Hints:
Distance between the termini: 37 Å
CATH topology: Arc Repressor Mutant, subunit A
Oligomer: single chain
Radius of gyration: 16 Å
CATH superfamily: Winged helix-like DNA-binding domain superfamily/Winged helix DNA-binding domain
Number of helices: 7
CATH class: Mainly Alpha
Amino acid sequence: MHTMTNCKSPVVNAVKLIGGKWKIAIIYNLREDSVRFGELKRILSPITQQMLTKQLRELERDLLIDRRVFEVIPPKVEYSLTEFGQSFMPVLDSLCRWSSEHEELVQTLSDNQVL
């Protein structure tokens, strides 16, 4: 029988990197290509500009995403997944499968949460 005892610390550490309301959604939207800040803000509406900036900075600090600034007027900034961020995709795919397999229950529980 597999116990979670050996995995507790790694799981806690991973959740510190990807936890919160917006980080997984940001990572998901960067899975295929670079995305500009404004586009991310539109996709993730109703996220505020301040919250998106904070989450992007944390993801960049934690080496999950890369920020590329183009020296044009007005400034253009694109975000993409790093190799480390790409390595999270199998986990995200598994999470998506799990959520889809339990879609009705997950939706019901999610609807009952007070945000």
